[in-house]
Amino acid sequence: MPTYPDLPLPEDGKLAENLAHFARALRKAGLPVGPGRTLDAIRAVEAAGFARRDDFFHTLQAVFVSRPEERATFAQVFRLFWRDPRYMEHMMSLMLPQVRGVAEERAAQAAEKRAAEALLDGQLPPMPETGEAPEQIEIDASATMSAEERLKTLDFEQMSAAEIAEARRMLARLSLPVRPLVTRRSRATPAGRRIDPHRTLREALRRGGEIARLPRKAPVTRWPNLVVLCDISGSMSDYSRMVLHFVHAVANRKGQGWARVHAFTFGTRLTNITRHLRARDVDAALRAAGAEAQDWSGGTRIGQSLHAFNRDWSRRVLGQGAVVLLITDGLDRDDAGLLAREIERLHLSCRRLIWLNPLLRWTGFAPKAAGIRAMLPHVDSFRAGHSIASLEALGQAVSDPGDSGEKARLLALLRE
Amino acid sequence: MTAARRPDNLPERQGQRLTTIPRDIDGVEQLLAGQGYVASRALATVVFLALKLGRPLFLEGEAGVGKTEIAKTLAAALDRRLIRLQCYEGLDAASAVAEWNFAAQMIAIRTAEAQGGADRDALKTELFTEDYLIERPLLAAMRPQPGGAPVLLIDELDRTDEPFEAFLLEALSDFQVTIPELGTIKAPEPPIVILTSNRTREVHDALKRRCLYHWVDYPGFDRELAILHARVPEAQAALSREVVAFVQRLRHEDLFKKPGVAEAIDWAKCLLALDVISLSPEVIADTLGAILKYQDDIARIQGSEARRLLDEVKRELAPA
């Protein structure tokens, strides 16, 4: 921080006091405002003066706001506060639901927590409680498998509650290996392909100008981002819940690749659940995600959702060579033309587009639905995502740039 | 980066030279308007605060709303040198601050050897002096400049990665850079720093906290018209109104990339070059590439959609 001279503040200190109150109100509304910003605000107001109300507004906004989505909250708090600060305490309690979007770091207050729990009950459908699915006939053939092996190939939809619990534990240990990307930066390494002139010179200097060897350097690598788009409509709900467990495991595993994992759910509308997945506890994470996504087990509008993603998010999350994992059954009742356009745009914006489709587990699966026919030509890889084994195999699709999964076979079917 | 090494890239200006910073927000508005930059009151306020408080200014917004232009305008208006650091993925300290001129250093070593009696310590101190240093934008911005502290434009910050952001923290909070062989170089007078981002990713809060923040929005009809008048004065008033109204109308459409102010200006220039007096569906079809840059968007607007939008625009403008 640069140092400033002492402030010529008025003696009674009313301004400083009011600004401190205002900062506290902003903090309560969920803006990350520390004491440093309050000091900045006092300096800024001193510099800009009080001549006009809109100048005062812009001055404070420049100091307190650091993201576009905070502007609406700021404007609201500003309007309420500078009318009469005393109303603030009262108004804050009324405003809380509107500012939830930026309030994730705030410790939840007891009353709000209760309210959230009350909301959650209605929105997150309960997991199947009883094991209504008996032993499957197809599993008889695999009597020699261990319990763990059997569970790996079992369809998520056919698992009992106990099996689901066990499968989740296995999913939590799963990772998604990926190859790093090469960057322009370099680091010193004995086996590098390029000569490092900087170190060559430094070593030569140590020997009085004699070049004894040529130190080498190699490019530094970095990890790509992963973007997950998960269908949570009625036809997918059993799979999507398990897949989100998997995504949570991938997002929270340290040191296994993937610089960042962004996750979105869609049914009838698109929801960003990235920050909910950061919660370490998987149940808390999925509960928060469930509360945020209002369209669990509803209909599907894949084209519209992809359109919303392309328009609002693609430039922000796909910028640096991201891999996109699209999890959907492709059963879309909307206009197939829109879907084809949007999936093409998505494919053009990312480095790799991998489609996981649980329907692929049926051996007789053929791409008959209009949505699937529209999407198939535009994905890099098409794979099943119905069991732990198939999610394990996903690692290959991600790390091998040539892998296309079942795409070629299905495209051939499509042409028939 | 070539621009950074050329201090004479300021356009010629007539009238009085304003080299001191304005004393109030109105002054900033006038200063920018004098250069043909029509700023909103909010933008003028943050620019004034940045100048007055000596804080970096962080501008975010869609492409083509005049974020980079504000730095160029400020440099020209205040008659300061503009130093530009264009960010890209993998930008490292060597290409942002300074690099040693290895070739020259090697030659110096060989020469010293050939002359005999190369004193190792003397050689070392001699080799790592400013004579062998190639200045890059960040270091150049810390140097005193004849006309006063320079304007440092750090453009498209979202294109770099987090390590570089962390590196920038030192430069932006203390206005100093460190070169291991030389030590810390501190700016005698803090440069005017402007950072821009297209928000392709979120920039870290630690960096934002050190800056004044402003989200640059698309301008309203009147201000965009004023911008067009300032930038393309030779365009007829009627054509300008049509261009602005059409572009504003396009921004309400569901497009992958909405046209910015820069596109509106480009388009007006294109229409002038074609001697167009008034917009027609045919002219729009021929020149759509100047405002829309994605095939999907062009396909969407071309033809009947353009005709419909144009009819709407003409109806809106007619009573006025």
Automatic annotation (TrEMBL), chain A:
The organism's taxonomic lineage, starting at the top: Bacteria, Pseudomonadati, Pseudomonadota, Alphaproteobacteria, Rhodobacterales
SMART domains: VWA (SM00327)
InterPro entries on file: UCP010256, Uncharacterised_CoxE, VWF_A, vWFA_dom_sf
Organism per entry: Tabrizicola soli
Domain VWFA: 223-392
Protein name per the record: VWA domain-containing protein
Transmembrane annotation, as ranges: none
UniProt-listed CDD domains: vWFA
